[in-house]
């Protein structure tokens, strides 16, 4: 990168068009001086003009010569660029599996923009995209793009035309804005309370976390106008809040509620009390906002981080490996035979593993719906096909321990 | 065996997607330079002789008026050259600044220690915006592209202007069916196109010819000449065309057809493709409504779409832009790398689902990408990846013991009992029914 940068700096500082422009200006100056002289004294015209010939030519030639450093600098920069990307070919269409589904891509982008809160970009995009629908192009796996297949169209236009998603994300951003900027828990609590049952089934304690934060706010009297150094106004308000709101939490969060109540006793010196962590937790607001976003997206069936972002990043990480594979295949003139599965393992950071993966220790194949993992009575798991091959329908020994069992006793498991 | 996971970042090989980022401004810089060179060369060739002739005429006459006039002409010509150069200079400045910004952006990647670093996350988000803007521009959604670039502050890293110009030309071919803009573009890039051996200009000229012939056949109704068609000299046809009258309703030689023949002589005859030349000649005899191949397809309006596509591909090759949007390339690779058989399974996965707080939704299962990923291959794994200390519930679902515990605590399940995180408040079992499972 350094030599590229050097070359560009050189281009900008020295090797640019400004010297040539100066030369042209010099030629213009020569002409204007001569013109003034001739206008003042017409008799000097022949001699002035004769004297002008060679400097004028010179000035123009200079303008041309001064282009040379620009030319050579550009050339050097070009070479540096070639060198930098020598072993990095431009990605080809072979790697492209998506051109046949432009509507789906557009939908994914629209959803991405909405979830990122870029509503005006999203609406411009949706508007432009519906006026100029994209054209599918054939790809290796889908030589005949099926734009006319109705499910894809419905799927794509369904989201495009409905304002619902936009409204939902607008609500999410409204709540987040209230949380982060205005420190107002009201809308978030209202949202959580409406979905109390669903959230509880998910094992989410968002509602309680929000209410607890509200309690803490009231306790600290943060949003209050009058100074309450000696009065217990804050804690009293918090107490009142707890009495009216904490009822439903008694079952699941009895301990937490007790602790919050215990804090009442320390209202004068909460800083030194064991309850300090509840009241002086700097990241509390961000934590609540993050867990709100997560729950909100999950309830819509969406991942908390933009899938487009995760997939594009994973793609960039995977590309070097895939490129290597492509080169090897080209060299050996082989085709990869398993259409459903990539032929190489792509190393990704652990955060990019979302599902558990079961690879049968016998056949080394990944489990699928057709070949699910089966647990034998001993607790070892192998793929169904391996099980059938090993047992041939009769009692057999587990390949990993001495236990014998009948294939009927094996049980399908879900990872 | 390959490593299962990696957090190592190899910045050098990570730049696979980023070549166009530097290539395009470089090609644009070169074009700017070429234009400057042309202007200066032109001035060098044209102006000194003018000055010499001024000298000659000045020595002949005593009146200063003509001398002053010719000097004024020279001054105004040179001033206009200077103005043009200054415009190029400001373009050059802009390009240099954006190149510098791009190099700085790419360079930032080299100081990122690993793939799990926050800095990588930031960098990758900027890259996504770049890829999105690139995609939007390619699809012709310039308004959204510009807005997105502005809102995310990446104007320096994207090439809105270049793509807008490109799409104006593409649309002029596809929608307005006019060759003017495209031919002007060809003229400006003549050198590069020659190097590529591009047939674009020839195809455009051929289209002009076809349109002239069409107008001729349609009874000279269109008196308005086609823009972009220089008036070819009306000499005798060099292309030997058998003008046997196809039973048409035009008497004698139609004016437009003559023009078409002249056009063909001027622009098409040099191609050396005699087969094509025969067809070109035959076009004079067959009218657009005669359903005869191969003339029918030459007359077909589809040719405009084809020309538009040819222009786009020529443009992209000339500027070293990949033929498909980079977003497609990144996403295709990413979808495969992330996809697992569980993502399109008929059974709910125990992990990476939306049904409990203890796991995050898998991006491939998320609505945005699920259908897109249906046709890509899934990632290859040589080893199982499961949570620590896996246990199985009586219904066959496997969880890490810790996560199962956390979930049951969160939902406030009574001690000694467990619930399945998938399915919420469904069945519950005694804790002792939960069995250890061995996954190798």
UniProtKB/TrEMBL annotation, chain A:
**GO BP of this protein:** proteasome-mediated ubiquitin-dependent protein catabolic process
Q: Does the keyword Calcium apply?
A: no
Q: Where in the cell is it found?
A: Cytoplasm
One cellular component GO annotation, for this chain's record? cytoplasm
Q: Does the keyword RNA-binding feature in the UniProt annotation?
A: no
Q: Which Gene3D superfamilies match?
A: Zinc/RING finger domain, C3HC4 (zinc finger)
| Name recorded for this polypeptide | GID complex catalytic subunit 2
Origin: domain of life: Eukaryota
User: Domain CTLH: where?
Assistant: 168-226
Entry's Gene Ontology molecular function annotations: ubiquitin protein ligase activity; zinc ion binding
RING-Gid-type zinc finger span: 360-401
Q: Which UniProt keywords apply?
A: Cytoplasm, Metal-binding, Zinc, Zinc-finger
UniProtKB/TrEMBL annotation, chain B:
- Specify the domain of life of the species encoding this protein: Eukaryota
Where in the chain are the RING-Gid-type zinc fingers?
362-423
Q: Where do the CTLH domain residues begin and end?
A: 176-220
Q: Which InterPro entries match?
A: CRA_dom (IPR013144), CTLH/CRA (IPR024964), CTLH_C (IPR006595), Fyv10_fam (IPR045098), LisH (IPR006594), ZF_RING_GID (IPR044063)
Q: What is its main location?
A: cytoplasm
The species is Polyplosphaeria fusca
This protein's name: Protein FYV10
Coiled coil located at which positions? 68-98
Homology family? Belongs to the FYV10 family.
Q: Describe its function.
A: Involved in the proteasome-dependent degradation of fructose-1,6-bisphosphatase.
Q: Which residues form the RING-Gid-type domain?
A: 362-423
Mention any one GO cellular component term assigned to this protein in its UniProt record: GID complex
Q: Name one GO molecular function term.
A: zinc ion binding
One Gene Ontology term of the biological-process aspect is: proteasome-mediated ubiquitin-dependent protein catabolic process
What keywords is this UniProt entry annotated with? Coiled coil, Cytoplasm, Metal-binding, Zinc, Zinc-finger
**Any matching Pfam family:** CTLH
